[in-house]
């Protein structure tokens, strides 16, 4: 009997061996002892806020609005809604203008959850700890009416909880630049991504929300020196999650985070994610951000902070990668910002093969809103290369990567197909670049 079993086992080993080697060869080289996992389901689309009055040509690409995306998330919610945002000013309390309505509507939908003191949904809010009551009044009201549980997160080094994130039922999420602010739904240009029926990526981004929740809940706000293993992730740069996007094509995805103290085991730091997009580009890199400085600019001492600037110069000079940057301009923009941008662009003047073009994106002031000053600007934060789409919420200045809490989503094409969420982002960028709102750098920019 025993020899027969041994023989059987041997035959089995011989039969299975080729199969195993086959799988090994099909691997992407990063994880040789495992078979390639099947891509995980995820419906992804770009969502944006175009400030009222901005108009593009008829045939320019169009995307779902941030307001529609948030309403859709609330429609879908059955059990839980987790929201991270720096501050809450959804209600247009001191503003008499119809453009506050979408924000008011979202606020009242959330507030209705408290009806009868028996919440239907568990709504958790993590926000930045701030002394100014105007920044947290909305969230306080939601807590007082039992509509939501609210925690405030205090970060060291004057860091701001800057992430803007919604997670619904552990299945769907929004991630991007839009604040819980009525202006972010009608007056400020914003960009994000809506993920539906995307449980695996939602679970991973949920770990970051849980870290915020833990920090806000544990009283003294100290950051654990060692995070519990439940905050660890398996998905990172070099070992991404494979997604079957919109039941149609495969992309590689991972979620990055800042600062280092909140970047738990296995996760890629947001700066490393950005540097990798720049370093892996072969043809072009298009960047849209609100502010860009090779400095840690806020705080007691200005410090030089060149990692992104260096990587861009190297890509352009050493590898001939074409770079386009669309940086926001509004009356509150720092006057010196143009100098840093011009310094970067100057390379193109002295070396023929270098192609760095920088423009400012200006959201024109709306006459009707002149009595509400300083609310119209471009706030989106993203990058698209010939391979990768990156969606975040940070200014590209040092403090956002050193001290603030933020999240980035990295999505890489795996095959050459005509239309992916990366090509959507490329089309969106080009629409803005060639729009009347994009202006070449010049001294004393005025509109
Ligand atoms: C708000 O604006 C409307 C129409 O412009 C006006 O009728 C109304 O009196 C205003 N309300 C306040 C409180 O200013
Ligand atoms: C965030 O919180 C810190 C203190 O924890 C505060 O200094 C800062 O002003 C806050 N920023 C915002 C945007 O609320
Ligand atoms: C960066 O972004 C925030 C809003 O997200 C803005 O208030 C701030 O002024 C920006 N610029 C700098 C240089 O910090
Ligand atoms: C899948 O993508 C291709 C192009 O990449 C597109 O033509 C096709 O309509 C898509 N199919 C579905 C079911 O969305």
TrEMBL record:
Among its keywords, does the record have Signal? yes
Q: Which GO terms describe its molecular function?
A: catalytic activity
Q: Where is the signal peptide?
A: 1-21
Q: What InterPro entries does the record point to?
A: Diverse_PLD-related (IPR050874), PLDc_3 (IPR032803), PLipase_D/transphosphatidylase (IPR001736)
Q: Which residues form a coiled coil?
A: none
State the SUPFAM superfamilies in the record: Phospholipase D/nuclease
One of the Pfam families matching this protein, by short name = PLDc_3
Entry keyword annotation includes Electron transport: no
Q: Which PANTHER family match?
A: GM01519P-RELATED, PHOSPHOLIPASE D - RELATED
Concerning its family, UniProt says:
Belongs to the phospholipase D family.
What name has this protein been given in UniProt? Phospholipase D3
């Amino acid at each position: 009997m025993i020899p027969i079993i041994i023989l059987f086992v041997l035959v089995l080993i011989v039969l299975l061996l080729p199969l195993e080697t086959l799988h090994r060869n099909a691997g992407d080289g990063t994880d040789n002892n495992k078979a390639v996992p099947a891509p995980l389901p995820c419906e992804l689309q770009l969502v944006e806020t175009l400030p009222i009055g901005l108009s593009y040509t008829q045939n320019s690409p169009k995307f779902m609005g941030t307001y529609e995306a948030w309403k859709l998330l609330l429609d879908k919610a059955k059990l839980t809604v987790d929201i991270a945002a720096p501050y809450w000013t959804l209600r247009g309390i001191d503003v008499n203008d119809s453009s506050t309505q979408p924000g008011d509507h979202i606020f009242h939908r959330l507030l209705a959850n408290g009806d009868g003191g028996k919440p239907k949904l568990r709504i958790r809010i993590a926000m930045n700890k701030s002394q100014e009551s105007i920044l947290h009044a909305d969230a306080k009201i939601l807590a007082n009416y039992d509509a939501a549980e609210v925690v405030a997160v205090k970060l060291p080094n004057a860091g701001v909880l800057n992430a803007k994130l919604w997670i619904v039922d552990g299945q769907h999420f929004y991630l991007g630049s839009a604040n819980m602010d009525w202006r972010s739904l009608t007056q400020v240009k914003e960009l994000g991504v809506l993920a539906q029926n995307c449980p695996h990526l939602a679970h991973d981004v949920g770990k970051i929300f849980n870290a915020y929740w833990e920090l806000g809940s544990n009283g003294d706000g100290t950051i654990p020196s060692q995070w519990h293993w439940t905050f660890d992730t398996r998905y990172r740069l070099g070992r991404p999650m494979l997604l079957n996007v919109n039941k149609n094509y495969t992309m590689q995805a991972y979620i990055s985070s800042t600062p280092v103290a909140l970047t738990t085991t296995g996760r890629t730091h947001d700066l490393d994610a950005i540097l990798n997009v720049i370093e892996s580009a072969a043809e072009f890199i298009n960047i849209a951000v609100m502010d860009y400085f090779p400095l840690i600019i806020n705080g007691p001492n200005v410090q030089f902070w060149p990692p992104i600037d260096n990587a861009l110069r190297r890509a352009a000079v050493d590898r001939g990668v074409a770079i386009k940057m669309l940086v926001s301009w509004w009356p509150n923009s720092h006057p010196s910002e143009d100098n840093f941008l011009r310094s970067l662009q100057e390379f193109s003047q002295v070396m023929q093969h270098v192609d760095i073009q920088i423009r400012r994106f200006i959201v024109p002031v709306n006459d009707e809103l002149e009595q509400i000053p300083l609310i119209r600007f471009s706030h989106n934060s993203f990058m698209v290369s010939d391979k990768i789409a990156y969606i975040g919420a940070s200014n590209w200045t040092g403090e956002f990567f050193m001290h603030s809490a933020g999240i980035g989503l990295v999505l890489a094409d795996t095959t050459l197909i005509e239309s992916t969420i990366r090509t959507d982002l490329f089309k969106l960028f080009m629409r803005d670049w060639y729009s009347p709102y994009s202006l070449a750098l010049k001294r004393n920019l005025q509109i």
